[in-house]
Specification:
226 residues, alpha/beta, Rossmann fold, 7-stranded mixed sheet, 13% strand, globular, binds S-adenosylmethionine
Amino acid sequence: MSIKRFRSRIRKFLRMKPTSTDPRDLKARFTDVYERRCWGSSESASGPGSTLDSGSVHRALLVLPQMVERYGIQSIADVPCGDFNWMPQFLKNHPDIEYTGYDIVDGLIAENQKRYPEVSFRALDITTQIPARADLIFSKDMVNHLVESDVWKAIANMIRSGATYLLITSNGDPVPNEELPRNFGGMSRILNLRIAPYDFPVPLHDDGYLAMWRTSDLAFVLDRAA
Ligand SMILES: C[S@@+](CC[C@H](N)C(=O)[O-])C[C@H]1O[C@@H](n2cnc3c(N)ncnc32)[C@H](O)[C@@H]1O
C-alpha cells in the first residue's frame, strides 16, 4: 500500500467516531453523525469536504456551472444537500435554477429551512424514497458513505425520479472498490463508479471526483437494485 493511501485510510479512520445507533438504521446513523459533528469541521456539519476552501468544493463550484451551461439544466435536486454550507455560492450566480435540497437528517433540513426560508428543502432517504423530478440530480460525497447494496438503491431512486442527468461523486483512483467494513458513524471509502462492481459506461464528464451521466445510459442500475 502506498504512503498516500495509507495516510488517507488513517485520516478516514480518525473521522469515524463510534455511534451507539443500530447500524442498519441509516437515518439514526446520519442524525447521530450530524448531532455529534462526527466529521469534525468547525465550519460545516457536513465535514471538511464541504468547507469553502476545500478542494472538493472548489471542484464542485467549477464543474456545476459548466454542466448547467453545456446541458441547459434548469432544475437541480441536490441529494444530499448536507448543511448547504457552500451551495449558496453556486446559486447566487444562477438565480433562475429551480433548486431543492434533500437530506436524510430531519434536524439538518429544519435548520437549513430556518436559515434559508427562500430555498426549498425536503427530508428524504434516497435508498427508499424518490425525489421530485429535476433536470439534474447532483450527489456530492454521499455514496462513499453507503454500503454497496444502498449505493445501488440510492442511484436507482435517482434514476426513477425522471432526472435527465446525474452528476455524482466517483473517485478516479485506480484501486479496486472495497465494501464499507460497517454501516457505521461517519465512515466512508473511495468509490469509483467506472469499475467493478458498478462498471458504469463512459460518462459525459469525469474529472476523477465528479462524473456525469445521462440517466438513460444507466437503466441497468434498476435491475441491479431490484
Ligand atoms: C459528507 S455529507 C455531504 C453533503 C453535501 N453533498 C456537501 O457536499 O456538502 C453527506 C450527507 O449525506 C446525507 N445522507 C446519507 N445517507 C443519506 C440517504 N440515504 N439519503 C439522503 N441523505 C443521506 C448525510 O445526512 C449527510 O448530510
